[in-house]
Amino acid sequence: MSSDERPEVQETTLSTAEGKTEEMRRRITIYDVAKEAGVAPSTVSRAFSRPGRVNAETSKRIYEVAEELGYRSQAPPRLDTGKPSKILAFVVSDINNPFLTHIMRGFQREAATQGYTTLLIDSQESDTAERQSIERILQLVDGVVLTSSRMSDSTINQIVKVRPVVAVNRDVRGVPSILPDTDRGIRQAVELVASHHHRKLLYLAGPESSWADGVRWRALTESCEEVDITLRRIGPYPPSLMGGMAAAKVWIRQQYSAVMAYNDLLAIGFMKAVQNAGFNVPGDVSVVGMDNTITTALTTPTLTTVATPPNMLGVRAARTLIYQLQNRSKQAPKTVVVPMNVFLRESVGPVPS
């Protein structure tokens, strides 16, 4: 066994009454549990440290054997008795993103009406943190919702083997998905820009690992070709105000008359930076965001944006996940598409003369 494969040995002393033999006092290790359960020691180690990577039946057998022998890991998981916990995990890529917060609120309210409690996990744009956090709580919850997940499809499908999963703003083969109608929303935004006689559009790309970013770029490419608009992409940028400010520095060197950003935060950061540099919105550049967060109505000028109602995404996610839990023998809908539209405000105007 290589050093990488060697499991971490977690030990405890078996409590005994006074007068018991030394044999009864010996330490119980994962090797004892593995021998009794008929599995490899590395499997026992994973069952306690990364339960999501071990088959549910195998995990249950390991926990039962450990209980019988008196073994205790440093962080014992919940023994899966088969009874529902009535807890649902809601995983977001960044809780600071107001759009994702609104999705979570819609999900939480709908879940509560059906008797479920929501456990929130913020992965902070890290696929590794997302996976590790889910592994730690997977045995505690009945199901998982992944919102704008940064994990790979293969990793998500490993989780599906243990608990029901619903993906929001992400299409994963074999997993029920709640998706905005991106093609429709992007097409409306491009037609709006074209109606103001803009012939060049710059896209401020979001995180490289974002599935939604790829879908938006493809929809932009197709829509711009239809109306004969020159399209350029810069980035990726963090979906934040700072990301938008960084993108503004690139735009100043090669100015396009219209800009569309991956999300509202990027768009607002961009607007503030170009305004601080002496440019006017929309006099010198028209700007379109995505998500229709509350901040879009608080900027000067107010921000035109493309979005689907985030609460609706959350409600649909809750209903789809709970349907799976209550109807295990029936197949849940694979894809639910929610309408996406343009919210017209002041940041879009005629092309500069």
Please explain how this structure is put together.
- The protein has 353 residues and is an alpha/beta fold.
- Helices cover 41% and strands 17% of the residues.
- The chain is built from twelve helices and 14 strands.
- The strands form three sheets. Strands 4-3-5-6-7-13 form a six-stranded parallel sheet, sandwiched between helices. It has a six-stranded mixed sheet with strand order 9-8-10-11-12-14, with helices on both faces. Strands 1-2 form a two-stranded antiparallel sheet.
- Helix 9 links the parallel strand 8 and strand 9.
- The protein is elongated, with a radius of gyration of 25 Å.
- It starts with 11 loop residues before the first strand and ends in a 10-residue tail after the last strand.
| Helical stretch tally | 12
Could you estimate the helical fraction of the residues in percent?
40-55%
Largest sheet: 6 strands, parallel
Distance between the termini: 72 Å
Mean pLDDT: 85
Low-confidence stretches: 1-25, 74-79
Radius of gyration from the alpha-carbon trace, in angstroms: 25 Å
How many β-strands, per DSSP? Answer: 14
Widest sheet: strand ordering: 4-3-5-6-7-13
Order of H and E elements: EHEHHHEHEHEHEEHEHEHEHEEHEE
| Strand-residue proportion | 15-25%
Question: Given the C-alpha coordinates, what overall shape results?
Answer: elongated
